[in-house]
Design goal:
Elements: H1 2-28, H2 33-55, H3 58-64, H4 68-102
Length: 104
């Protein structure tokens, strides 16, 4: 079970990264430089902090889960919440970095 969840997690990271790359590519191929720059910052922030947010609560769900069902439920729910919050915070930080670098 652990091996399956690990592989699914890696596949999720790959698909998330590919989605971010695709979004950046689409915005940069449209010819609008400011939009390309902003989307690049926000997507990189969203991806990187989303991945980090998914891994940070690992000690929490290890401590909370004592049965196989508990392990699955805790890891899916807590990792999903962590990655969602991390992704939203990453977009916010990426947007702020864009605003600071765009003012120059």
């Amino acid at each position: 079970m652990h091996t399956i969840m690990k592989r699914v997690g890696y596949a999720g990271i790959v698909f998330s990264g590919l989605g971010s790359i695709n979004t950046i590519y689409k915005s940069c191929s449209s010819g609008r430089e400011n939009e390309c720059k902003k989307i690049t910052f926000t997507e990189i922030g969203s991806f990187s902090l989303g991945v980090a947010g998914g891994f940070l609560p690992i000690p929490l769900y290890v401590a909370l889960s004592f049965s196989p069902v508990g392990i699955i439920a805790c890891s899916v729910i807590i990792s999903l919440a962590g990655s969602t919050v991390g992704s939203m915070f990453g977009k916010y930080i990426g947007n702020k970095i864009y605003e600071v670098t765009n003012d120059q």
